[in-house]
Amino acid sequence: MIIELFGPPGAGKTTFARALTGRLQDRGHFTELKLSYRPTESLRAFNPYGVATGRNAEIHRLRRPILEMLKIARHPFSNSRDVKLAVHLIKLLPPTNLFASLRNSQYLSRLSHSWYEKSSAASVVLFDQGFVQAVCSLALRTGVANDTRIANALDYAPKSDLLIRLDAPLEILKVRLHDRRGLQSTVEQLFELDLKTSLASIYMIDRVHALLLQRGRYVLTASSVDHHSLGESLDAIEKEVVWKLQSRAQQSSEPTRARSTAPPHGGDRYG
Question: Would the CA dihedral through 189, 195, 200, 202 be positive or negative?
Fold first, then answer.
C-alpha cells in the first residue's frame, strides 16, 4: 500500500510523513518511509548542537542520486520502464532549459524505480513526495502548463493508494521557507526553488488538486501547523489507512463476496 503526500514547500510534508509513520508503526503496522530529505536538515537532526557544514550537505545531496542511479542500472528491464516514464512526463511538461530537463529526468527515473519496487509490498510505504508533487513541480517550471497537459501527466503517472495534501497558512509558509534557506549552503540553494517560486507553487497545488478531483481522484487534506492540527490529522488519516488495510485483507480472503468500497471519510480537511 502506497501513501503519497503533496503540497507547497514548507507545508510540513516531511514532518507529517515522519509522524504518520511513527503512529502506524506504534499501532503494529509495518510502515516504510521514503523521504526526499534535504541534507542540511537531516544532518542537523543528528547534530542538534551545531549546524551541518555546507560541504557535508553538498556531498549528501550529490551522492544520494548517484548511488540510486547505480542501483537502477543493475536492473535493465526496470531501468527501461523508469526512463520511459520519465521521458514521457518531461515531454508533456518540458522544463525551460536542458539542465532542468536532465535533472528532472533523473529524479523521475529514481522515483519510478523506488515506486514500482515498493508497489507490491504487503506493508505500508509512505512517500513524503511522489508523482503528484513531481507533476506540480514540472507544471510550475514549464512554459506550456495548460490544464490538458497537466491532466495527461496525472493520468500517465502511477497512482498511490492514498493521496494526502498538506496545507499551511501563507505567513507560516514564508517563515518556514526563510528559516530553511538560512540552513542551506550557497551550492545547496541551487537545488531548491527560490522564495517567489515556492510561494507561486501554492496556486499550482490548488490547480492540480482541482484536476485530481475532476478526474475522480480521492484526496484527503491534512495539516501539521501545530500539535493540535497534527494530532487531529493523524487520527483521521490513521482511520483511513486501517480501513484500507482491512478492506485489502478482506478482498484477499473473501474474493467472491460483495463488499462496499466507500471509504469511511469523504475527502474532508483534517486539522
Answer: positive
